[in-house]
# Entry
Amino acid sequence: MRKRLVFSLIACLLALTILVPGCAKEAAQPKEPATPTIKIGIIGPMKFVQGQHHWFGAELARDEINAAGGIIVKGTKYLVELIKTDSNEMLSPTDAAAAMERLITVDKADFVIGGFRTEGVFPMQDVAMDYKKIFLGAGSATKELCMKVKENYNRYKYWFRVTPFSNVNLVNNSLLTLGTAGAIMKQGLGIQGKIKVAILAEQATWADAMVAAYQAYVPQKLGMDVVGAWRPSATATDVTAELSAIQASGAHIILTIISGPVGIPFARQLGELQIPLASVGINVESQKDGFMSATNNYGNFETTLNTYAKGVAITSKTNAFFEAFVKKHGQTPTYNAGTYDAIYVLKAAIERAGSLDSDAVVVELEKTDMETTAGRLVFMGKDTDTPHDVTYGPGYVTGIATQWQNGEMKAVWPLNWNNVTYPGTVQWQIPDRVIKAYKK
Amino acid sequence: MLRRLLKDFQGDIIAVPGRLLALIFFIMLLLVPLVTNEPYILRTLIFANIFAIFAVSWDLLSGYTGQVNFGHALFFGVAAYTSALLNLKMGMPPWATIPIGALAAVVAGVVVCLPALRLRGPYLSLVTLAFPLILLGIIFTFTGFTGGEFGVSGLSRVSNSRVTDFYISFGVMLVSVMIMWKLTDAKSALVRTGIIFHAIREDEITARASGINTIRYKLLAFAVGGFFAGIAGAFHAHFMRIAGPSNLDLFLSFQAIIWTVFGGITSIYGPVVGVYIMYPLMEFLRVVPEIRMLIFAGIVVIILLFMPEGIAVFIRDKMEQTCPRCKLSNVWWRKTCRACGANLR
# Structure
C-alpha cells in the first residue's frame, strides 16, 4: 500500500513536470497574431534585479512601440514580440550559453538583448556570433567584449554594447566627481594645502585595477594626495576599524569602490560615528531607493556614480521613461533597463535597413546616432580599439553622479563640465558632520 | 572465437537487464544525430557527456574509496585553466591541451591527497572544500595571467561541427566510464583496485593490517579521480571557449555530488544515470524558469526520500535479483539461477 502511494506521488510529480511546462507554454503563447512579429530575446539573470530590469525596460519599449504602430519594414508592419530567457549566468555560465542557444535555435529569436556577468556574456557572445545574430549588450562593462570586434570583425560584428559605457570610463567619472567634491570642500572649508584622499575598495577583482588607477591618477590629474587604500570584504557588516584608520590618516574625502552590501554598513557607520569625511565614488547600494532606510537615515550625503535619477533630464526622453518605469514597477531603473533604449535603437536600424537580415541591420546599427534615455548614443567606429562600444564624453553618454540630500537622491554631476549640465542637477553638498567638525 | 564472444555477450549483457538497458540507451544516444541535428539538443547531450565523466570521477574517489571530496571542482578548474592557458598563450591545439590539462589535475589530486593521508571523515571533506577557494585566490591575485573574474576566453574549439563534438564527447565519456568501472569493479580479475578501494572505505585499519599499502591506493584514487575530472574540465573549457572562476565554483562541486547521489552512489553507472536525467531535465524545465529550481529540488528530495540508494540502483534492484549461491545477476522473473540453478525465491 505504502509502495503504491510512493509510486503514485512520484508519478504525479513527474507528470506535473511534463504538464505544467506544457500548460505554461500554452498560456504564455499569445494567439496567432494577425500581424507578423519580430522576436527579440531578452536574456539575463532573471532572478536578480539586473535581469528583472532588463525585462522591465524591454517590456516598456515593446508596449510603446506596438501601441505606436510597431516596426515598419519596407511598408510591412511588424509587432515586437519579446522572449524572456533566464540565463542563470550568476550561477553557471554553462547554463547561460545553453540558454542563448535555446533562444536562437528553439525560440527562434531574431535579435538578442541583455547579459550581465562578464564570464557568462563571453560564451553567450560566442553562441550569438556562431548564428550571426545581433546581440546588444545591456549589462557587462568590460571593454574586452568590444575588443573582440576589432580582433575579428567579420565574426564579432554582430555584437554591440548599448549600456553601460566601458569600465575604463568609470574611473574617469569617479575622478571627475572627486575633483568637483574636492574643489567645493577646499573652498567651503578653507582647507589649506592638498586635499587628502583615502581609497575604500571592496575586496574584488574589478576593484583592483581601479585602486591602482586611482593611486596613479588622483595625484597626477587632480593634484590630491592618496593617503592609503583600505580593502574591507564586499560583505563586511562592520567597517569601524577601516573608518577609524582612515580618520587617523588625516584624509578629507573617502573615494569608494563598492558594489556589495558593505556599502550599507559603511554609509551608516560613517554617519553614526560622525566621522568628518565626505564620501564619493561608487557605492551601488546607494543607487537603490531603500538606501536611506537601510542606513537608518545616516546615508545622507553619500555620493555615487549612477545612470538615472528622479527629475534629471539627461535627454528629452529620460524623464518620461523614468516616470513610466517607476509607475509600473515602483523601482528606480538601473542601467540594465537600458534594454528600453536598445529596442528603440534596433527598431531604427531595422527600419533604415528595410530588412531583418543581420548583416544589413549591422550596417545601419553602425550608423546609429540617437537620443536615448542615457544620452546621445553613437557606437564607436571600426577604427577604434573597441568598436561597437558606447561613445563616452560630453555630447554623448556621460553617466551622472548622485548624492543623497535630505533623504532624496539628487544628481550632482555633471554640472558645468565641458558645457554639460543636465536639467535637475544641483550642487554637491559638504556633509553636515564635516562642516560641524571644521567649525569647531 | 566469434561464437564465444557472442555467448559472452549473451551471458554478460543480454541476460542482465540493467546492462541490456544501458546498451540500448547508449545505442540510442549514438543514433541521436541521425534523428535530429538540433544544435541545442546536441549541446545538452554534449554537456551531459562531460558532466557524466565528472560525476563518475567523484563517485570513484568519494563513493568507492570513501574520501569524500567537497571540492571536486578543483580538478575540473585546474584542467580547464591549464588547457585554456596552453591553448591561448602557447597556441597548442585541444588534442594536446586536454590531456595535459588532465595531467595537471592529477598533480592537483596528489597535492589534495597529502592532507588526506592525515585526515579522515568530515575533516578531510572540509579541507578539500578549501582547495578550490585557494586556487580562486591565486587566480584573482594574478589577474594579468589568469584573466581574473572574467576568465580566459577565446579558446579553440574541439571541432567545427556540433555532431563531431557530440561523438567525441560521447566516445571520451564511454571510454572514461569503462575505465573507471573496471578500476572499481570488485569482481574484476584484471585489476585489484576495486576490491582494495572498497576495503579502504569500509575499514582502512583492517585493510592496512591485511598488508595493503593504503596510502598508495588513496593516492591512486585521487590521481585517477583528478585525471577524469580534469578530462571533463578541459573538454568543457574548449567547448565553452572559456575557462573562468565558475569552473572552481562550490556549486559545481555540489552538482557532482547531487548527480551521483541521485543516480546511486558507489555504482559508477549511477552518476551517469543521474546526469542523463537531471541535466536534460533542467534544460527542459527552462519553460518554467520561475519554478525550475523548485521542481529540481522537489524531485531530488522525493527520489532520495523513497529511493535512498539512488534511482539507478533502485531500478536495477527491481529488475535484477542476485543468486544467493553463485552471486550472478538474474532477471527478476526467473525462479531459478540461470547458471547454477539455485532457487531464487
In short: Chain B has one domain: 14-331. Chain B has a mean pLDDT of 90. DSSP finds 15 helices and four strands in chain B.
